[in-house]
């Protein structure tokens, strides 16, 4: 087992400094988000939705394959700067350069070469993002072993991540893409996207460096795994045993289904905002501001609710409610129960719905992140190996595969309804409302059903407070799981009923 230094006392400064790093994640959520990239490449650059969906899907699949390798590498890495921080520092330069290049492509890139260019930049940017995100996430179980304290720590993480996302979204829509006389469709202004990319790079990298430097002093008090010599077969076997944890499999299965739904939603999000609801970037910026107080309510409510109902029950409740809340506005419009888009009632209804859905969704995501962190000790007791990085990377593995599939499905929906791409440069005319109504009729029920299935799968998650505290006690006493030997001819591994020993 690894050396287990005393976990640092989580003063407010520790929580803030750790949480601050997720401002960069929030910036990445916007700057690398499918909703914006998809809309930009179709309506501004002029690529076909099917081509864009394929590019995004393949880049996500490559990212999903590489993430567990990054997680495993950071788990076993040893340096005078610890296991995690070298990766965080190394991510900064490629993140900065590729964020700028994604939104400001060289003038000599032809339309024929544009898909290959975007694909290359996306792959490098997602890889660099993983070099930061996975080791940074993996610090949470080490900083906060306590069952409820880690939920509070992760709440701070989510709070700052949402602050970053809100900040950048408001800047994008309220400043860079605002409509004026020169840009009647401000959301299709290529110069605005280019300036947005530079701003995102500066904010994101600055927050990474601040957080990494602020938590650098805790390196001596983090887990220090022993150096081990392993063959490729032994490494693969160990990874399999860690990832075979039943509670992790439940979360991954849920992510597999919700990834498809999320991919569909994100690929269509900006098309729905601009062309279904007729919103302007300025109105979207004003609406987005309400996510900030919603995030405060959500991150404050999550620890309290998890203490009252336990984590799994709370998470399933709030996610189910958020799914129903999220489909209300589009359903009302399809039923003819809302006024036309030029009515001030529309932004009001959408803002109220966004606020409630954000509170519920944020609370759910905070608790799910804490549930993943709880798998660390459960897996360590069962396998004798702490693998925070691998577990957090694995949690995002299947969702990235299926999100990519969902993006492609969403873009094929655009193709199915004959959504008009920008033939020569940015599109400058609105889309036929009949096209958008047909798109809503297809996408709404598919997304809702998939999300409900994803929530239902989480009923198989097994870790609660009592079992987590038992895991902590077992690890404190140095308990390990003795693995039965692998038969040389590839026969079955039969577990020993008395495998857990002191």
Structural write-up:
The protein is mainly α and 502 residues long. The chain is 72% helix and 1% strand. The chain has one domain: MFS general substrate transporter like domains (Growth Hormone, Chain: A). It has a two-stranded antiparallel ribbon. The N terminus and C terminus are likely disordered.
Helices and strands, in order, run as HHHHHHHHHHHHHHHHHHHEE
Mean of pLDDT: 80
Give the second-level CATH assignment, the architecture: Up-down Bundle
Cα(first) to Cα(last) distance is 12 Å
| Broad structural category | mainly alpha
Oligomer: single chain
Fraction of residues in H or I helices: over 70%
Shape: globular
Number of helices: 19
Q: Beta-sheet strand percentage?
A: under 5%
CATH superfamily name? MFS general substrate transporter like domains
Strand order of the largest sheet: 1-2
Radius of gyration: 23 Å
CATH topology: Growth Hormone, Chain: A
What count of domains describes the coordinates? 1
Largest sheet: 2 strands, antiparallel
Number of strands: 2
List unreliable stretches of 5+ residues.
1-5, 479-502
Question: What's the CATH class, please?
Answer: Mainly Alpha
List keywords for this structure.
single chain, 502 residues, mainly alpha, Growth Hormone, Chain: A, two-stranded antiparallel ribbon, 19 helices, 2 strands, disordered N terminus, disordered C terminus
């Amino acid at each position: 087992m690894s050396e287990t230094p005393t976990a640092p006392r989580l003063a407010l400064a520790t929580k803030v400094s750790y949480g601050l790093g997720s401002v960069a994640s929030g910036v990445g959520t916007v700057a690398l988000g499918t909703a914006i990239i998809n809309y930009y490449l179709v309506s501004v650059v002029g690529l076909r939705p099917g081509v864009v969906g394929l590019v995004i899907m393949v880049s996500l699949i490559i990212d999903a394959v590489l993430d567990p390798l990054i997680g495993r590498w950071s788990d076993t890495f040893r340096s005078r700067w610890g296991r995690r921080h070298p990766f965080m520092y190394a991510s900064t330069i490629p993140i900065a350069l590729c964020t700028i290049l994604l939104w400001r492509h060289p003038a000599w890139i032809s339309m024929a070469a544009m898909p290959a260019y975007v694909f290359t930049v996306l792959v490098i940017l997602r890889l660099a993002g993983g070099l930061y995100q996975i080791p940074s996430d993996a610090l949470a179980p080490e900083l906060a072993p306590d069952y409820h304290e880690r939920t509070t720590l992760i709440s701070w993480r989510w709070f700052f991540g949402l602050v970053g996302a809100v900040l950048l979204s408001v800047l994008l829509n309220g400043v860079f893409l605002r409509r004026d006389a020169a840009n009647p469709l401000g959301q299709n202004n290529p110069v605005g996207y280019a300036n947005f990319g530079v701003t995102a790079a500066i904010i994101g990298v600055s927050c990474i460096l601040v957080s990494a430097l602020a938590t650098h002093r805790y390196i001596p008090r983090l887990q220090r795994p022993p150096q081990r010599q392993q063959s490729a077969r032994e490494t693969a076997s160990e990874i399999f045993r860690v990832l075979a944890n039943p509670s992790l499999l439940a979360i991954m299965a849920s992510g597999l289904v919700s990834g498809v739904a999320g991919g569909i939603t994100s690929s269509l999000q900006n098309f729905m905002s601009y062309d279904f609801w007729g919103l302007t970037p300025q109105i979207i910026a004003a609406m987005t501001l309400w996510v900030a107080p919603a995030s405060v309510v959500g991150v404050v409510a999550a620890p309290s609710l998890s203490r009252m109902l336990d984590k799994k029950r709370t998470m399933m409740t709030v996610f189910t409610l958020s799914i129903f809340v999220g489909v209300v506005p589009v359903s009302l419009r399809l039923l003819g129960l809302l006024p036309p888009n030029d009515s001030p009632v529309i932004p009001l209804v959408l803002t109220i719905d966004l606020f409630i859905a954000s509170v519920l969704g944020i609370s759910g995501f905070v608790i799910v992140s804490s549930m993943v962190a709880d798998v660390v000790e459960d897996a360590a007791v069962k396998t004798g190996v702490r693998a925070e990085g691998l577990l957090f990377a694995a949690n995002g593995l299947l969702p990235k595969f299926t999100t990519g599939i969902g993006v492609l499905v969403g873009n094929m929906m655009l193709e199915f309804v004959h959504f008009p791409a920008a033939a020569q440069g940015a599109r400058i005319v609105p889309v036929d409302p009949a096209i958008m109504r047909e798109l809503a009729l297809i996408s709404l029920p598919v997304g809702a059903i998939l999300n409900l299935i994803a929530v239902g799968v989480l009923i198989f998650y097994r870790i609660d407070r009592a079992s987590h505290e038992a895991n902590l006690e077992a690890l404190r006493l140095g308990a390990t799981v003795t693995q039965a030997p692998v038969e040389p001819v590839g026969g079955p591994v039969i577990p020993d009923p008395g495998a857990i020993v002191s």
